[in-house]
Design a protein that fits this description.
Strand order of the largest sheet: 4-5-9-6-10-13-11-12
Radius of gyration: 21 Å
CATH superfamily: Zn peptidases
Largest sheet: 8 strands, mixed
Structural class: alpha/beta
Helix content: 25-40%
Distance between the termini: 54 Å
CATH topology: Aminopeptidase
Oligomer: single chain
Number of strands: 13
CATH architecture: 3-Layer(aba) Sandwich
Length: 422
């Protein structure tokens, strides 16, 4: 985070800021060291025989030893890049909420989901319409300001004035969306054997632009959002396409979230409605959330770090988050992918995973290394461009995610003979 906006709060104290419009805690992200645990107690070593993770990852590793697989890997990277470039080319000049590009993005993704769904014998594409909870956002902004700024600084101090002005602008801005309608796009691939067990995979499709010095936001300016978050959208599409052609036991629900850049109000509405539905027959496995997976300064041959963020260890539901994260980590390591997944238990409140946590659903954020190699120079600017991304790195993360989804969506016991016959 060397290039990130930072604000000093007195001697020996420093908050590092990841500025996202209307993220909770007023855009503050307090960085603190978190112990990386190699193995979850929830996943003990098997007494005999390889684990499902090991078997699936071993298959992937063995495929990677052939010249054909190497060629395929190069082709996969090119395909990933082309998909991302096509998406951005189809949604100019930005995907800010209520813009023309935003509408184009909705239509583009809905059409892609409908096309992908044709590969699967039991699927559904739907739109989750919602009215953004503006009052929730406003109350959260004021609460964050009071707790993080007003409680520590006097009104005459520069820090107080700066963040009071930002909070007032944010509250005024979010108020403009009162009564508007947002649209989350959903593709459901129903499971073959256990359709009431559901895994959620998400990525937001909206963008925003801001001035890094003044903190002013610009909804009309050019904001291609290649890393934030076309990279996540392409991961979502590639995973959806894969599993539409390779059905699994459990249901997978792919969601392209709206309003992420405005206090995560799209995913918050989705999680809120899911909780209100409270279907006792369903089991919600949790959310794998793709956020900004296209940036690393390092070549993949050096196995660059990527992060898997969970709740803090003292929070209810942490163990379920950790299970999701550790499944991803173990798969990537066993398959010998060219990334180093690190689990960070810090309550990462910078993306849609946060919304699921508010309703006590398991969730992790799959993303770049925010602490040491964040895409700060291009973030929320007109130069967050396809040319600036690390596609081999991005593709390794996608492969790890697909392997993880496979494991999480596969029942432990094999089908009995009647299931195989049917």
């Amino acid at each position: 985070m060397r290039n990130k906006l930072s604000i000093s709060f007195g001697k020996g104290s420093r908050f590092l800021v990841k500025l996202t419009l209307f993220g909770p805690f007023i855009v503050y992200f307090l960085m603190f060291s978190c112990q990386i645990v190699a193995r979850s107690p929830e996943i003990p070593p098997p007494e005999s025989g390889p684990s499902p993770t090991a078997m699936i990852a071993s298959d992937a590793r063995n495929e990677g030893t052939t010249a054909t697989a190497t060629k395929t890997s190069v082709e996969e990277v090119k395909s990933t890049q082309q998909m991302l470039e096509n998406f951005i080319a189809a949604t100019p000049p930005n995907r800010s909420v209520e813009s023309d590009g935003h509408t184009k993005a909705f239509n583009y993704l809905k059409a892609r989901f409908e096309e992908i769904s044709k590969n699967h014998s039991n699927s559904q594409v739907s739109v989750h319409d919602f009215v953004p909870d503006v009052d929730f956002a406003i109350k959260s902004y004021e609460k964050d300001f009071q707790e993080l700024i007003a409680s520590k600084h006097k009104p005459e101090e520069a820090v107080y004035k700066k963040w009071r002005a930002f909070t007032d602008r944010a509250i005024e801005f979010v108020g403009k969306f009162r009564g508007k309608v947002g649209k989350n796009i959903v593709l459901t691939l129903y499971g073959k054997r256990s359709p009431l067990e559901i895994l959620y995979v998400g990525a937001h499709y909206d963008t925003i632009k801001h001035d890094h010095d003044t903190l002013q936001f610009d909804l009309s300016g050019t904001a291609p959002g290649a890393d934030d978050n076309a990279s996540g959208v392409i991961a979502l599409l590639k995973a959806a396409e894969h599993f539409s052609k390779n059905p699994v036991d459990k249901t997978i629900r792919f969601i392209s979230f709206d309003f992420e850049e405005i206090f995560f109000l799209g995913s918050y509405a989705f999680a809120k409605d899911l909780s209100a539905k409270n279907d006792k027959n369903e089991y919600q496995t949790g959310l794998l959330n793709f956020e900004m997976i296209g940036w690393s300064k390092s070549n993949v041959d050096t196995k660059p770090i990527m992060k898997l963020y969970t709740r803090t260890v003292d929070k209810t539901g942490f163990e379920k988050d950790f299970f999701l994260a550790n499944t991803f980590k173990e798969y990537a390591e066993t398959a010998n992918l060219k990334i180093q997944p690190r689990i960070q238990k810090n309550g990462f409140n910078r993306s849609d995973n946060w919304s699921f946590w508010q309703k006590n659903y398991a969730a992790i954020c799959i993303t770049q290394d925010w602490e040491e190699d964040f895409n700060s120079a291009n973030y929320h600017t007109d130069h967050d461009l396809p040319a600036n991304l690390n596609y081999p790195y991005m593709n390794e993360i996608i492969k790890a995610a697909i392997g993880t989804i496979q494991i999480l969506s596969t029942l432990d016991e094999p089908p009995d003979s009647s299931e195989e016959t049917n």
